[in-house]
Design a protein that fits this description.
Layout (H helix, E strand, L loop, with lengths): L77 E2 L5 H18 L1 H10 L1 E3 L20 H9 L5 H6 L3 E5 L4 H10 L6 E9 L10 E10 L10 E10 L5 E3 L2 E10 L6 E10 L4 H6 L5 H19 L4 E7 L2 E7 L4 H4 L15 E3 L2 E2 L5 E2 L2 E3 L3 E4 L2 E6 L15 E2 L13 H14 L8
Parallel strand pairs: 1-11, 2-3, 2-11, 4-18
Antiparallel strand pairs: 3-4, 4-5, 5-6, 6-7, 8-9, 10-11, 10-17, 12-15, 13-14, 16-17
Helix pairs in contact: 1-2, 2-9
């Protein structure tokens, strides 16, 4: 917590009313107790061993105390501490707005619905970063391949979309600078009812289009680049396959006479883009690497939803989303602004308890779900209670090639607006908000 960054709340607190309190009752003497032996302090390591999680490369730490403990929930995409969220949000707005030029549909969708922010620890960019020259071999490669699997929830629901913010933060920017490697800023996927015509056709399952959004501060004068591939999942969820795309590449041929060149079109079915070269940096094939990438982003998106509250942060017309445990909200938004009455009620959980008169109170939520904080508008909801969960929406999309303009259809930004409207109306929740 010593690395947390705070802002000055706007507004003024209400004046406290003076209340005459009754004289305190004399306290009964405390019974003698035996202090239990303290349990040894342990941390959580990615390998499962009891060890501190080092983050010396995150901050300018005291060399005599280079390690800081994190809560285990940050491994699964839920924020527990405030240390990085403001820095991540600042970079997130910058990268998201740059998507408008090259992928306007995705920009229109996620600026309205919000992309999923995750803690640094979720990306496993902790401690010693993997160098570009390192290859996956032996047990590392076996473990990498064993992670190409999908959860029972995903196989059952087959959600329509998902987006995780992997590299839109200063931590990844500095990590890239030191390792001469580039990391995707956003990875998002869309369920396809009718995939693009140039994509390999597969039956008996679902096809997803996965997009990696590449961008960097070094390209500030240029725009980012979306790179896509399609992946097929059979009905059982056991067969995961990256689909080939029919692409035309121009081969440069030297003329027999003179110094000129001419091009010959080479049209083949292949894994699109430069994914083979990217996978070769890790010593693996593109089929393995892209399958693992897709399963990783699905896993991160699902784990982040395990937090019982969904926090939406709005800046103008752009939205970001992150998950947090409701028990941490009062700490997390301690510096929220005061309202017109000078109060700062925050959404919180009320534990089940028994009143003095003997009546029982069930667990429930109370407090304000909407307030301003650090110059942003914040909305808090409880998925599956206030509205549907993201996994509940499983409608597939269609590539523009198949769309008949005489028929009515919705664009991605229009779908996002409808989903947000349904959330406000409480559709899919156990209570109407």
């Amino acid at each position: 917590m010593k690395f947390d960054k705070w802002v000055t709340p706007q507004g003024a607190p209400a004046e406290k009313e003076k209340v005459q309190r009754a004289a305190p009752k004399p306290k009964a003497p405390k019974p003698e107790t035996v202090e239990p032996e303290p349990e040894p302090e342990t941390g959580f390591d990615l390998t499962g061993k009891t060890a501190n999680v080092g983050i010396a490369d995150h901050y300018d730490l005291d060399p005599n105390n280079p390690e800081v403990l994190y809560e285990e929930t940050e491994l699964w995409g839920q924020y527990n501490f405030r240390d990085t969220i403001l820095d991540q949000l600042e970079r997130y707005w910058w990268y998201l707005e740059r998507m408008k030029a090259r992928d306007p549909d995705a920009y229109g969708f996620y600026k309205t619905y919000g992309a999923q922010l995750v803690p640094y620890l979720t990306n496993k960019l902790v401690g010693k970063a993997k160098k570009k020259s390192d290859k996956l071999v032996g047990k590392e490669l076996e473990k990498y391949r064993s992670e190409i699997t999908l959860s029972p929830m995903f196989n059952e629901m087959r959600p329509a979309f998902g987006c995780v913010v992997f590299g839109a933060n200063p931590k990844v920017e500095s990590w890239e600078e030191g390792n001469k490697i580039m990391w995707p800023r956003f990875i998002y996927y869309t369920k396809m009812d009718r995939p693009p015509p140039e994509t390999q056709l597969m039956l008996g399952g679902d096809t997803y289009k996965c997009t990696l959004w590449w961008d960097s501060p070094k390209r500030a004068k240029k725009w980012g680049t979306p790179q896509q591939f399609c992946i097929f999942i059979d009905r059982s969820g056991q067969h995961i396959q990256v689909l080939r795309t029919c692409e035309t590449r121009m081969i440069h041929i030297h003329k027999k006479k003179g110094l000129g060149l001419f091009d010959i079109p080479d049209r083949h079915w292949r894994i699109p883009g430069d994914y083979e070269e990217w996978a070769a940096e890790f010593g693996i094939d593109a089929q393995t690497h892209l399958s693992h990438t897709f399963c990783s982003v699905v896993e991160h998106a699902e784990h982040a939803h395990f937090g019982d509250v969904r926090v939406q942060v709005h800046k103008d017309d752009m939205t970001a989303v992150f998950a947090i445990d409701s028990r941490r909200l009062s700490y997390f938004f301690r510096d929220r602004d005061y309202d017109e009455d000078g109060r700062r009620r925050v959404f919180h959980i009320v534990r089940p308890h028994v009143r003095a008169d003997g009546s029982t109170v069930k667990m429930h939520y109370r407090g304000e779900k909407s307030f301003t904080w650090a110059g942003y508008r914040v909305e808090i909801t409880v998925p599956a209670l206030d509205h549907f969960m993201d996994e509940d929406f499983g409608v597939g999309s269609s590539d523009a090639f198949w769309i008949h303009h005489k028929k009515k259809y919705l664009t991605e930004p229009e779908v996002a607006a409808k989903l947000v409207g349904w959330q406000h109306q409480g559709y899919g929740g156990h209570q109407r908000s």
